[in-house]
Amino acid sequence: MTKVYIAIIGVGGVGKEFLKQLSNYITSNRSAPHILIPIVVSRSSAAVVSQDYSPIFLPSALDNLARSTTNPLSFPDEALSYFRGAPGEVILVDNTSDEKLAAHYPALLKNGVHIATPNKKGFSSDITLWDSIFASARGPSNLGGGYVFHEATVGAGLPVLSTLRELIETGDKVKKIEGIFSGTMSFLFNTFAPVGSGSSARFSEVVVKARDLGYTEPDPRDDLNGLDVARKLTILARLSGLNVRTPTSFPIQTLIPKPLESAASADEFLQGLGDYDTAMDELKRDAEAIGKTIRYVGKLDVESGHVEVGLHTFNTSSPIAGLKGSDNIISFYTERYGDNALIVQGAG
Amino acid sequence: MTKVYIAIIGVGGVGKEFLKQLSNYITSNRSAPHILIPIVVSRSSAAVVSQDYSPIFLPSALDNLARSTTNPLSFPDEALSYFRGAPGEVILVDNTSDEKLAAHYPALLKNGVHIATPNKKGFSSDITLWDSIFASARGPSNLGGGYVFHEATVGAGLPVLSTLRELIETGDKVKKIEGIFSGTMSFLFNTFAPVGSGSSARFSEVVVKARDLGYTEPDPRDDLNGLDVARKLTILARLSGLNVRTPTSFPIQTLIPKPLESAASADEFLQGLGDYDTAMDELKRDAEAIGKTIRYVGKLDVESGHVEVGLHTFNTSSPIAGLKGSDNIISFYTERYGDNALIVQGAG
């Protein structure tokens, strides 16, 4: 029976769901060969830290965290010294979207701390951080480094990165990747320009609806600027062998009209957005006129090195056009699969 | 640098492609931390065996095999004794569809030989063989057993079993699995009843076309009886926790008309099949009359324990109906994914 110690940072939407699933997993796997021992549950302003490395009881961890006056571990020194004291291997689960925390991954990995995270920042920022992370992680010539797992940085729970890695590791060559990588963008265009049934909703109304349903960030501009999709595409491109220096070093089409970039609030932005509905309607009608529909996608082409994020038209019979709700879809075109993409789709 | 020894049995379509990919892999990974050493290339009547465990040169292996007068290793004793002599771990790659060879998996695994195979027989025959395989394979309480990998037994190269295992291992609950698991069945119904464009082809003509294109077994009845799909569904059902005793212990709809089961040859069968085209046309028209289309699918429902293989109708806008060519599609409905299935599709 191996004990594995887990430090969990971040208790937002993803973090809370992770704590729930981990708690259920621990309860129902008491006799598993690996016993998971939570030793840190932390948010930006406070933490619950098990000083003697005994397990934190997860069902009351959030309540205890809300009452806690303990400071979070400071990175890297205090955290490393605490992790080194653990009587077994430590996994840091970073459920934040904090770029500062991600900058400490190399130091953690070098010291044998494992990292599992949906935080895109470490893998989609400047390529020097990416290089430093993978140079510090466990590998054939670095058996003392920690493992780094970031499957959920693209496609959330869908098997996207594992599929891509497996294709490459077994000798296939990726030629093109194309898909809808944002649940928000998926919902917006599946609702604004659904296939089959006509929709008369205006784009600005759909954005308001998406925000009301909780499908967007509090300020929808954080979705509409395309940066979230660009970060995911950066990760896919790098894994496919393309040297993408930063998440903005390729064309990204923003859906925020220039004059509204500086709107003082989300509400002011949404009020102004209606003025641009006619332009969006035109794009939709132009696509319909040639039997197509518009979708907001990311694309990469390994041979030409081209990477881009933005609006494209698709045949109404294509899997991308037929997507429902806020699902993601990712198509891998490879040497082995030829013209028939390997497609993964589902809730992102 | 770890040396891993590989014994390859079977040089049919799958076996030949495997040898080609392995040869390319070895050529382009000379400095990898794991060096793969082919020591056996075998077909049913002859073998090339490296007596001193030096690597067989794959580019000429098939020619040498064609000229070889060496008998194949006999299982289990001679093979085990040869494998035990190897100066490292041995992986048996079974590229046959031989049930007799599969029956030796437990003895091989117990002796630490690893198995990687697309051969469905070991995993879809009587459940006692399944139980015996997994009791003999490496596990928490059996660290000396060999690993067994059979990803390609369902969905070929598509990440189907890995996705299912990952969902279960991370605590998700599978509720339903549904899909098109046979490239042949996919092609037949995508061609006979395509969505969008009408088709006037008769079912028997489509079967002849599929055979001419090499999409069916030499005798198409080996596809049309549904057994291949039933074996795949048996594997998925067992991994999902259902106790399926044999691959025929649930309803399987055959597409072979009763009187033609005993037709003396494939040609005689195909000539007779035309007499049943009207019945198939009716099924197609009945589906179209309610805005649907017919597809040959496998389904399992974990809660009710229901497993079945056969024709069903699907909305023309569903991903199953919209499939192209001979692609496979597998939809996983789980507790976490709710009504939005996690879908994997592509060439099977």
Describe this structure in words.
Chain A is α/β, with parallel strands linked by helices and 348 residues long. The first copy, chain A, folds into two domains: 2-153, Rossmann fold (3-Layer(aba) Sandwich); 161-347, Dihydrodipicolinate Reductase, domain 2. Chain A is 35% helix and 21% strand. Chain A has helices spanning 13-28, 61-67, 77-84, 99-102, 105-110, 121-124, 127-136, 161-169, 183-192, 203-212, 221-224, 227-239, 266-273, 277-289, and strands at residues 2-9, 34-42, 47-49, 89-94, 114-116, 148-149, 174-180, 292-301, 306-315, 327-334, 342-347. The first copy, chain A, has a six-stranded mixed β-sheet. In chain A, strands 9-8-7-10-11 form a five-stranded antiparallel β-sheet. Chain A is globular, with a radius of gyration of 22 Å. The mean pLDDT of chain A is 95. Chain A binds chain B through residues 21, 24-25, 28, 32-33, 140, 157-159, 162-163, 166, 170-171, 195-196, 317, 319, 322, 324-325, 327, 332, 336-338, 340-347, and chain B through 21, 24-25, 28, 32-33, 140, 157-159, 162-163, 166, 170-171, 195-196, 317, 319, 322, 324-325, 327, 332, 336-338, 340-347.
Uncertain regions of chain A: pLDDT < 50 for 5+ in a row?
Answer: none
So how many helices of chain A? 14
What's the order of the H and E elements of chain A?
EHEEHHEHHEHHEHEHHHHHHEEEE
Measured by residues with Cβ under 8 Å of the partner chain's Cβ, the largest interface is: A-B, 35 and 35 residues
Kindly state the percentage of residues in helix of chain A: 25-40%
Distance between the termini of chain A: 34 Å
Biggest sheet features of chain A: 6 strands, mixed
Query: How are the strands of the biggest sheet of chain A laid out side by side?
Result: 3-2-1-4-5-6
Please report the first level of CATH classification, the CATH class of the largest domain in chain A. Answer: Alpha Beta
- Report the strand count of chain A: 11
Oligomer: homodimer
| CATH architecture name of the largest domain in chain A | 2-Layer Sandwich
Shape of chain A: globular
CATH topology of the largest domain in chain A: Dihydrodipicolinate Reductase, domain 2
Structural class of chain A, by secondary structure, is alpha/beta
* Average pLDDT number of chain A: 95
Percent of residues in beta strands of chain A:
15-25%
GO biological process, one term (chains A, B): methionine biosynthetic process
Family (chains A, B): Belongs to the homoserine dehydrogenase family.
Organism (chains A, B): Terfezia boudieri ATCC MYA-4762
Pfam families (chains A, B): Homoserine_dh (PF00742), NAD_binding_3 (PF03447)
